[in-house]
Amino acid sequence: EEEKFHELMVSKFSKSTPSDVISLFKKKYCGLCCTKFSCEKFAWKHYHGRGHESLIRKKTFRNRPLFWQMVFHALISIEPRGATKDEIFDYILETFSAHISDDPKQVRAEMDKTINDMVERFHNVVNVEGVYKLRDRSPSDAPKPVPEGLLNKNNYGGNFEKEKQ
Length: 165
Hints:
By secondary structure, this protein is mainly alpha-helical. It is built from 8 helices and 4 strands, in the order H-H-E-E-H-H-H-H-H-E-E-H.
C-alpha cells in the first residue's frame, strides 16, 4: 500500500522535486514538513495544500535541519513505540552528525529544550512516563491563538477593536 502511495507522490511531484525528497512523503507522515497524519484524508489535504507546496518551491530540503525536525525524525522512525530522551539523543548523534555541534553537551541541552517546547508549548509530542511520542492530530485541530502581548499593536494602528469593526 505504501508503494502505491509512493507512485502517486512521484507522479504528482516528480517535475518539481528530487526523488530523494519525494521518498520523504509517506502515507502516515511528511518527512519534509515534519507532520504526522492521523488518517489518509489528512495526508491528502496536506500534500495538496499550500504549505507543503511552499516548502517544495522554496527548496527548504536543502537547509540544515532544525532541532525540532531532528526530534520529529527520531520519533517517527520508531513510531508508535516512542523513545526516551537518551534514544532520541543517540538517533540525532548518529543521523545528523554533519549538521550538529561537536560538543555533545550543547547538543543534549538544545535537544532537551526542544523536546520540552514540543511537549509543553506546542503539544505535538506527549511524554508518557519518560517515553516521548508524536501526538496524533486530526484535520479539525485548529491552531492555538497567538497569546496576548506577542503581537505588536502598533503594527496594526494601535487598536485591534477598531480594526475588527
